[in-house]
Amino acid sequence: MSKDRTEYLLNIEEVLGPELMKKLPKFVVNFFKRRIHQDEINDCIMKAEHYHGAGFCDEALNYINIRYKVRGEENLDKDKKYLFVCNHPLGGPEALIIGSVFRRIYGEGFKVPVNHLLANLKPLRDSFVPVRVYSSKQSRDLGEQIAGMFNSDSQVLVFPAGLCARKIKGKVTEMPWKKMFVTQARRYQRDVIPMHISGYNSKRFFFFTKLSMLLKLKFNLGMVFLVDELFNKTGQEFIITIGKPVPYTEFDKSKTDKEWAADIQGRVFELSKDNGCEPNM
């Protein structure tokens, strides 16, 4: 092995940083360790044959015992670079499942923009691009990272909702899609592949998400339990449906980019039909 796998282990103290560690009581740190399943994730890394790179997606899915089925794979040209867009129902399993699918079809080459919290999952740091893609504040570094991602030979996956699905008026609802992927598809001349994945988070996640909204908190309390949500999916099977490519040239001036984003989101919703699962958008 070229690198010691211990370099890839998750360390909550490193994630929180020295300043925050000085302020937090030990029981709070231990609470975070349990919520992010630090011991289980590190056990998976130590036992995995592929403990870093896209292969870790398969290792993690096997460790947690998550299965999936793929529909529509025939829609893909395996020699073409795409921009994949997908609904965001869960927050963790979909990234691992899609990573597993991509590895089988394309090898190691795929990139996913993620928030800085997920970027701390070191086994996938070669695939995760830690940028605030959905932020309205664009920086030079952010622009360079996005350009590097789209100019690479890798497949690119984005979750245009930016946030996990929430429960609104008793219905699990996907947030309106941001238009960025339309703009970037046209700019970097990548056809768009719409994808849908089945699944729901727990009532607990939706409760804390709603509580955060009611309290007008900047931080979604439900995020604390996202890794819990991943491990709670043990034994479940998900359906991922791949739609037909949408040529980037289709994104013309007949609609605004925001309208095109809503149009593609609607097509993704249509992909959920006949998959044996209730719609979750």
Description of the molecule:
Strands 1-9-8-2-5-3-4 form a 7-stranded mixed beta sheet, with helices on both faces. A two-stranded antiparallel ribbon has the order 6-7. 38% of the residues lie in helices and 15% in strands. Helix 5 packs across helix 6 and helix 8 crosses helix 11. It contains 11 helices and 9 strands. It has a domain of 189 residues: Glycerol-3-phosphate (1)-acyltransferase, CATH 3.40.1130. By secondary structure, it is an alpha/beta fold. The termini are far apart.
| Biggest pleated-sheet summary | 7 strands, mixed
Instruction: Summarize the helix and strand pattern as letters.
Output: HHHHHEEHEEHEEEHEHHEH
Average pLDDT level: 87
Report strand %. 5-15%
Q: What's the CATH architecture of the domain at 69-223 and 238-271?
A: 3-Layer(aba) Sandwich
Helix content: 25-40%
* CATH homologous superfamily classification of the domain at 69-223 and 238-271: Glycerol-3-phosphate (1)-acyltransferase
End-to-end distance, in Å?
Answer: 43 Å
CATH topology of the domain at 69-223 and 238-271: Glycerol-3-phosphate (1)-acyltransferase
Q: What would you call the quaternary organization? A: single chain
With helices defined by DSSP (H or I, 4 residues minimum), what is the helix count?
11
Classify the secondary structure makeup into a structural class. alpha/beta
Give the total of beta strands.
9
What is the CATH C level class of the domain at 69-223 and 238-271, in words?
Alpha Beta
C-alpha geometry: globular
Brief synopsis:
With about 280 residues, the chain is an alpha/beta fold. The protein is built from 11 helices and 9 strands.
